[in-house]
Amino acid sequence: MFSRFKDFVNRHRRKFIVTGVVVGGTWLALRYAQRKLREYTENEAKEFIERNRRQQHFKSTERTCDQTILSLSPAIHEAIINCVNTEELVTELQTATTGKYGIWERLKVRAFTRIAALVYANSMLVLLLRIQLNLVGGFLVRDANGEGVLSTELQHLYLSLCHHLRDTGIIDLCSLIERHVQPIMENISLKKQMSLRDTEELFWSIQNSVESNMYENPIKSMAKFCIPSKENTDTGCLQEQEVQQLFNIISETSDLLESDEAASLMRSCISQSFAGVIDKLADQFAPINHSEPAPGPSSDKVADAWTSAVNGSAKSSFVHPSNVTMPLAKLIPIVNKMTELSPSKKDLWMYQLVRNDLVKVFGANVYEAFGQLE
Question: What GO MF annotations does this protein's record show (predicted)?
Protein backbone atom coordinates (compact mmCIF):
# COMPACT_ATOMS: atom_id res chain seq x y z
CA MET A 1 0.00 0.00 0.00
CA PHE A 2 2.77 2.38 0.91
CA SER A 3 4.60 1.44 -2.23
CA ARG A 4 1.52 2.33 -4.26
CA PHE A 5 1.20 5.65 -2.50
CA LYS A 6 4.87 6.29 -3.05
CA ASP A 7 4.55 5.47 -6.72
CA PHE A 8 1.50 7.77 -6.95
CA VAL A 9 3.42 10.62 -5.38
CA ASN A 10 6.40 10.04 -7.63
CA ARG A 11 4.20 9.98 -10.73
CA HIS A 12 2.41 13.23 -9.75
CA ARG A 13 5.27 14.97 -7.95
CA ARG A 14 5.41 17.86 -10.41
CA LYS A 15 1.67 18.43 -10.04
CA PHE A 16 1.99 18.50 -6.26
CA ILE A 17 4.87 20.96 -6.45
CA VAL A 18 3.04 23.24 -8.89
CA THR A 19 -0.13 23.05 -6.83
CA GLY A 20 1.77 23.83 -3.63
CA VAL A 21 3.52 26.75 -5.24
CA VAL A 22 0.23 28.10 -6.59
CA VAL A 23 -1.64 27.67 -3.31
CA GLY A 24 1.25 29.06 -1.25
CA GLY A 25 1.75 31.97 -3.62
CA THR A 26 -1.94 32.75 -3.55
CA TRP A 27 -1.96 32.68 0.22
CA LEU A 28 1.07 34.95 0.42
CA ALA A 29 -0.41 37.28 -2.17
CA LEU A 30 -3.65 37.50 -0.19
CA ARG A 31 -1.76 38.22 3.03
CA TYR A 32 0.31 40.87 1.25
CA ALA A 33 -2.80 42.45 -0.29
CA GLN A 34 -4.54 42.45 3.08
CA ARG A 35 -1.56 44.11 4.74
CA LYS A 36 -1.28 46.73 2.01
CA LEU A 37 -5.02 47.38 2.13
CA ARG A 38 -4.84 47.78 5.89
CA GLU A 39 -1.88 50.16 5.57
CA TYR A 40 -3.67 52.11 2.86
CA THR A 41 -6.80 52.38 4.99
CA GLU A 42 -4.81 53.48 8.01
CA ASN A 43 -2.90 56.07 5.96
CA GLU A 44 -6.12 57.37 4.47
CA ALA A 45 -7.64 57.66 7.92
CA LYS A 46 -4.55 59.46 9.24
CA GLU A 47 -4.54 61.83 6.26
CA PHE A 48 -8.24 62.52 6.72
CA ILE A 49 -7.75 63.25 10.41
CA GLU A 50 -4.74 65.44 9.62
CA ARG A 51 -6.61 67.33 6.90
CA ASN A 52 -9.57 67.82 9.20
CA ARG A 53 -7.30 68.99 12.01
CA ARG A 54 -5.51 71.44 9.74
CA GLN A 55 -8.81 72.68 8.35
CA GLN A 56 -10.24 73.27 11.80
CA HIS A 57 -7.02 74.94 12.91
CA PHE A 58 -7.02 77.18 9.83
CA LYS A 59 -10.64 78.20 10.48
CA SER A 60 -9.70 79.01 14.07
CA THR A 61 -6.74 81.04 12.81
CA GLU A 62 -9.02 82.93 10.42
CA ARG A 63 -11.46 83.77 13.20
CA THR A 64 -8.61 84.94 15.41
CA CYS A 65 -7.26 87.02 12.55
CA ASP A 66 -10.62 88.72 11.93
CA GLN A 67 -11.11 89.46 15.62
CA THR A 68 -7.57 90.79 15.99
CA ILE A 69 -7.93 93.12 13.00
CA LEU A 70 -11.23 94.50 14.28
CA SER A 71 -9.86 94.93 17.81
CA LEU A 72 -6.71 96.76 16.67
CA SER A 73 -8.32 98.98 14.03
CA PRO A 74 -9.70 101.49 16.59
CA ALA A 75 -6.16 102.00 17.92
CA ILE A 76 -4.93 102.70 14.39
CA HIS A 77 -7.87 105.05 13.86
CA GLU A 78 -7.14 106.90 17.08
CA ALA A 79 -3.46 107.22 16.21
CA ILE A 80 -4.40 108.85 12.88
CA ILE A 81 -6.80 111.26 14.61
CA ASN A 82 -4.06 112.28 17.05
CA CYS A 83 -1.49 112.62 14.28
CA VAL A 84 -3.72 114.63 11.93
CA ASN A 85 -5.61 116.80 14.39
CA THR A 86 -8.53 118.66 12.82
CA GLU A 87 -10.48 119.25 16.02
CA GLU A 88 -8.18 122.04 17.14
CA LEU A 89 -8.65 123.79 13.79
CA VAL A 90 -12.44 123.43 14.06
CA THR A 91 -12.35 124.94 17.55
CA GLU A 92 -10.07 127.73 16.34
CA LEU A 93 -12.41 128.38 13.41
CA GLN A 94 -15.41 128.70 15.73
CA THR A 95 -13.69 131.14 18.10
CA ALA A 96 -11.53 133.19 15.73
CA THR A 97 -12.65 136.64 14.64
CA THR A 98 -10.00 137.10 11.95
CA GLY A 99 -7.88 134.89 9.76
CA LYS A 100 -10.62 132.33 9.18
CA TYR A 101 -9.65 131.89 5.53
CA GLY A 102 -6.19 130.62 6.53
CA ILE A 103 -7.75 128.21 9.03
CA TRP A 104 -10.05 126.85 6.32
CA GLU A 105 -7.06 126.34 4.03
CA ARG A 106 -5.28 124.27 6.67
CA LEU A 107 -8.45 122.40 7.56
CA LYS A 108 -9.11 121.25 4.00
CA VAL A 109 -5.61 119.78 3.78
CA ARG A 110 -5.89 117.95 7.10
CA ALA A 111 -9.40 116.63 6.47
CA PHE A 112 -8.44 114.95 3.21
CA THR A 113 -5.08 113.85 4.63
CA ARG A 114 -6.84 112.11 7.52
CA ILE A 115 -9.28 110.17 5.38
CA ALA A 116 -6.57 109.12 2.91
CA ALA A 117 -4.29 108.05 5.78
CA LEU A 118 -7.13 105.98 7.23
CA VAL A 119 -7.59 104.22 3.88
CA TYR A 120 -3.90 103.32 3.58
CA ALA A 121 -3.41 102.42 7.25
CA ASN A 122 -6.43 100.11 7.38
CA SER A 123 -5.27 98.31 4.25
CA MET A 124 -1.79 97.88 5.73
CA LEU A 125 -3.20 96.56 9.00
CA VAL A 126 -5.32 93.94 7.23
CA LEU A 127 -2.43 92.63 5.13
CA LEU A 128 0.10 92.71 7.98
CA LEU A 129 -2.07 90.75 10.41
CA ARG A 130 -3.14 88.27 7.72
CA ILE A 131 0.51 87.50 7.12
CA GLN A 132 1.57 87.43 10.77
CA LEU A 133 -1.25 85.30 12.17
CA ASN A 134 -1.28 82.83 9.27
CA LEU A 135 2.50 82.53 9.44
CA VAL A 136 2.32 81.72 13.16
CA GLY A 137 -0.66 79.44 12.50
CA GLY A 138 1.37 77.48 9.96
CA PHE A 139 4.19 77.03 12.45
CA LEU A 140 1.74 75.92 15.15
CA VAL A 141 0.49 73.13 12.88
CA ARG A 142 4.04 71.88 12.71
CA ASP A 143 4.35 72.28 16.48
CA ALA A 144 1.38 69.92 16.87
CA ASN A 145 3.48 67.24 15.18
CA GLY A 146 6.11 67.53 17.88
CA GLU A 147 8.64 69.70 16.06
CA GLY A 148 8.58 72.53 18.65
CA VAL A 149 9.19 75.18 15.99
CA LEU A 150 8.25 78.40 17.85
CA SER A 151 8.45 79.16 21.54
CA THR A 152 5.66 81.11 23.25
CA GLU A 153 7.97 84.08 23.94
CA LEU A 154 9.00 84.24 20.30
CA GLN A 155 5.36 84.15 19.15
CA HIS A 156 4.37 86.98 21.47
CA LEU A 157 7.32 89.13 20.46
CA TYR A 158 6.74 88.54 16.76
CA LEU A 159 3.02 89.35 16.93
CA SER A 160 3.70 92.48 18.98
CA LEU A 161 5.70 93.92 16.06
CA CYS A 162 2.42 95.17 14.57
CA HIS A 163 2.46 97.91 17.24
CA HIS A 164 5.16 99.60 15.18
CA LEU A 165 2.47 100.55 12.64
CA ARG A 166 0.39 102.18 15.38
CA ASP A 167 3.25 103.94 17.15
CA THR A 168 5.70 104.99 14.44
CA GLY A 169 4.39 103.87 11.08
CA ILE A 170 1.26 106.03 11.32
CA ILE A 171 3.32 109.17 11.94
CA ASP A 172 5.50 108.51 8.89
CA LEU A 173 2.48 107.56 6.77
CA CYS A 174 0.47 110.67 7.70
CA SER A 175 3.48 112.90 7.05
CA LEU A 176 3.99 111.31 3.64
CA ILE A 177 0.33 111.63 2.63
CA GLU A 178 0.06 115.24 3.82
CA ARG A 179 3.05 116.22 1.66
CA HIS A 180 1.14 114.95 -1.37
CA VAL A 181 -2.30 116.23 -0.36
CA GLN A 182 -1.19 119.81 0.31
CA PRO A 183 -0.17 120.84 -3.25
CA ILE A 184 -3.33 119.22 -4.64
CA MET A 185 -5.70 120.98 -2.22
CA GLU A 186 -3.93 124.34 -2.54
CA ASN A 187 -5.06 124.53 -6.16
CA ILE A 188 -8.73 124.04 -5.29
CA SER A 189 -10.72 127.06 -4.12
CA LEU A 190 -13.02 126.76 -1.12
CA LYS A 191 -15.78 128.20 -3.30
CA LYS A 192 -15.41 125.65 -6.08
CA GLN A 193 -18.58 123.69 -6.69
CA MET A 194 -17.76 120.00 -6.23
CA SER A 195 -19.86 117.23 -7.73
CA LEU A 196 -19.62 113.60 -6.69
CA ARG A 197 -17.51 112.91 -9.76
CA ASP A 198 -15.20 115.82 -8.93
CA THR A 199 -14.76 114.42 -5.43
CA GLU A 200 -13.98 110.97 -6.82
CA GLU A 201 -11.37 112.48 -9.16
CA LEU A 202 -9.89 114.37 -6.21
CA PHE A 203 -9.36 111.15 -4.26
CA TRP A 204 -7.93 109.53 -7.39
CA SER A 205 -5.46 112.44 -7.73
CA ILE A 206 -4.39 111.99 -4.10
CA GLN A 207 -3.91 108.24 -4.55
CA ASN A 208 -2.00 108.73 -7.80
CA SER A 209 0.29 111.35 -6.23
CA VAL A 210 1.01 109.28 -3.11
CA GLU A 211 1.99 106.28 -5.22
CA SER A 212 3.87 108.20 -7.92
CA ASN A 213 7.29 108.21 -6.23
CA MET A 214 8.75 104.71 -6.31
CA TYR A 215 11.03 105.45 -3.34
CA GLU A 216 8.22 106.74 -1.09
CA ASN A 217 5.34 104.64 -2.40
CA PRO A 218 3.74 103.10 0.74
CA ILE A 219 2.53 100.16 -1.33
CA LYS A 220 6.05 99.23 -2.36
CA SER A 221 7.55 99.89 1.07
CA MET A 222 4.91 98.52 3.44
CA ALA A 223 7.52 96.77 5.55
CA LYS A 224 9.04 100.14 6.51
CA PHE A 225 5.73 101.30 7.99
CA CYS A 226 4.68 97.96 9.50
CA ILE A 227 7.81 96.34 10.96
CA PRO A 228 10.56 97.90 13.11
CA SER A 229 14.22 97.57 12.19
CA LYS A 230 16.49 95.08 13.93
CA GLU A 231 18.01 97.86 16.01
CA ASN A 232 14.58 98.84 17.37
CA THR A 233 13.48 95.28 18.15
CA ASP A 234 13.78 94.32 21.81
CA THR A 235 14.91 90.68 21.95
CA GLY A 236 16.01 90.59 25.60
CA CYS A 237 13.51 87.86 26.53
CA LEU A 238 14.79 85.45 23.84
CA GLN A 239 17.69 83.07 23.71
CA GLU A 240 20.41 83.54 21.12
CA GLN A 241 19.04 80.84 18.84
CA GLU A 242 15.54 82.31 19.07
CA VAL A 243 16.81 85.78 18.20
CA GLN A 244 18.19 84.52 14.90
CA GLN A 245 14.98 82.62 14.29
CA LEU A 246 12.95 85.78 14.96
CA PHE A 247 15.00 87.83 12.51
CA ASN A 248 14.56 85.11 9.87
CA ILE A 249 10.79 85.22 10.33
CA ILE A 250 10.82 89.04 10.20
CA SER A 251 12.78 88.82 6.95
CA GLU A 252 10.19 86.41 5.55
CA THR A 253 7.41 88.78 6.61
CA SER A 254 9.13 91.75 4.96
CA ASP A 255 9.52 89.79 1.73
CA LEU A 256 5.82 88.92 1.78
CA LEU A 257 4.78 92.53 2.45
CA GLU A 258 6.90 93.79 -0.43
CA SER A 259 5.95 91.02 -2.86
CA ASP A 260 4.07 91.77 -6.08
CA GLU A 261 1.04 89.84 -4.81
CA ALA A 262 0.86 91.91 -1.62
CA ALA A 263 1.25 95.13 -3.62
CA SER A 264 -1.61 94.08 -5.89
CA LEU A 265 -3.79 93.27 -2.90
CA MET A 266 -2.90 96.58 -1.26
CA ARG A 267 -4.03 98.48 -4.36
CA SER A 268 -7.23 96.46 -4.41
CA CYS A 269 -7.95 97.27 -0.74
CA ILE A 270 -7.19 100.97 -1.26
CA SER A 271 -9.46 101.17 -4.31
CA GLN A 272 -12.18 99.32 -2.42
CA SER A 273 -11.86 101.73 0.52
CA PHE A 274 -11.96 104.87 -1.63
CA ALA A 275 -15.01 103.45 -3.39
CA GLY A 276 -16.58 103.05 0.05
CA VAL A 277 -15.83 106.71 0.79
CA ILE A 278 -17.57 107.80 -2.40
CA ASP A 279 -20.57 105.58 -1.61
CA LYS A 280 -20.94 107.26 1.79
CA LEU A 281 -20.50 110.72 0.30
CA ALA A 282 -23.18 109.97 -2.31
CA ASP A 283 -25.80 110.25 0.44
CA GLN A 284 -24.70 113.83 1.07
CA PHE A 285 -25.15 114.73 -2.59
CA ALA A 286 -28.84 113.78 -2.58
CA PRO A 287 -31.08 116.57 -3.90
CA ILE A 288 -32.43 118.89 -1.19
CA ASN A 289 -36.12 119.76 -0.77
CA HIS A 290 -37.17 117.06 -3.21
CA SER A 291 -40.54 115.62 -2.21
CA GLU A 292 -41.81 112.27 -3.35
CA PRO A 293 -44.95 112.27 -5.58
CA ALA A 294 -48.18 111.85 -3.73
CA PRO A 295 -49.67 108.36 -3.74
CA GLY A 296 -52.92 109.66 -5.26
CA PRO A 297 -54.76 112.86 -6.16
CA SER A 298 -56.07 114.84 -3.17
CA SER A 299 -57.15 118.03 -4.93
CA ASP A 300 -57.95 119.26 -8.42
CA LYS A 301 -54.49 120.74 -8.89
CA VAL A 302 -52.76 117.60 -7.70
CA ALA A 303 -55.17 115.53 -9.81
CA ASP A 304 -54.13 117.37 -12.95
CA ALA A 305 -50.44 116.83 -12.11
CA TRP A 306 -51.12 113.16 -11.39
CA THR A 307 -52.90 112.71 -14.72
CA SER A 308 -50.09 114.44 -16.58
CA ALA A 309 -47.49 112.23 -14.88
CA VAL A 310 -49.42 109.08 -15.74
CA ASN A 311 -49.78 110.20 -19.36
CA GLY A 312 -46.07 111.04 -19.51
CA SER A 313 -46.52 114.71 -20.28
CA ALA A 314 -45.14 116.02 -16.98
CA LYS A 315 -41.42 116.65 -16.60
CA SER A 316 -39.66 114.56 -14.01
CA SER A 317 -38.31 116.50 -11.04
CA PHE A 318 -35.77 113.80 -10.15
CA VAL A 319 -32.19 115.04 -9.94
CA HIS A 320 -29.39 112.48 -10.05
CA PRO A 321 -26.81 112.80 -7.24
CA SER A 322 -24.05 113.12 -9.83
CA ASN A 323 -25.64 116.37 -11.00
CA VAL A 324 -25.74 117.88 -7.52
CA THR A 325 -22.87 120.12 -6.47
CA MET A 326 -21.76 121.81 -3.26
CA PRO A 327 -18.89 124.17 -2.47
CA LEU A 328 -15.69 122.60 -1.20
CA ALA A 329 -16.11 124.52 2.08
CA LYS A 330 -19.31 122.56 2.71
CA LEU A 331 -17.73 119.24 1.70
CA ILE A 332 -14.81 119.59 4.14
CA PRO A 333 -16.88 119.17 7.35
CA ILE A 334 -18.63 116.15 5.82
CA VAL A 335 -15.31 114.46 4.99
CA ASN A 336 -13.95 115.34 8.42
CA LYS A 337 -17.01 113.90 10.18
CA MET A 338 -16.58 110.60 8.33
CA THR A 339 -13.30 110.00 10.13
CA GLU A 340 -14.58 110.68 13.63
CA LEU A 341 -14.14 107.78 16.06
CA SER A 342 -16.87 106.85 18.50
CA PRO A 343 -17.59 103.62 20.43
CA SER A 344 -20.99 103.21 18.76
CA LYS A 345 -19.65 103.72 15.25
CA LYS A 346 -18.15 100.88 13.24
CA ASP A 347 -14.74 101.61 11.82
CA LEU A 348 -14.92 102.90 8.29
CA TRP A 349 -14.54 100.17 5.60
CA MET A 350 -12.82 97.74 7.98
CA TYR A 351 -15.54 95.10 7.84
CA GLN A 352 -15.40 95.09 4.03
CA LEU A 353 -11.63 94.70 4.09
CA VAL A 354 -11.80 91.85 6.62
CA ARG A 355 -14.19 89.97 4.32
CA ASN A 356 -12.09 90.56 1.20
CA ASP A 357 -11.84 87.14 -0.46
CA LEU A 358 -8.56 87.88 -2.24
CA VAL A 359 -6.86 88.80 1.03
CA LYS A 360 -8.26 85.65 2.66
CA VAL A 361 -6.80 83.51 -0.14
CA PHE A 362 -3.45 85.25 0.30
CA GLY A 363 -3.53 84.44 4.01
CA ALA A 364 -4.42 80.82 3.27
CA ASN A 365 -1.41 80.54 0.96
CA VAL A 366 0.86 81.90 3.70
CA TYR A 367 -0.62 79.42 6.17
CA GLU A 368 -0.07 76.50 3.80
CA ALA A 369 3.47 77.55 2.90
CA PHE A 370 4.68 77.80 6.50
CA GLY A 371 2.66 74.81 7.66
CA GLN A 372 4.48 72.35 5.39
CA LEU A 373 6.77 69.88 7.10
CA GLU A 374 10.41 70.23 6.13
Answer: protein-macromolecule adaptor activity
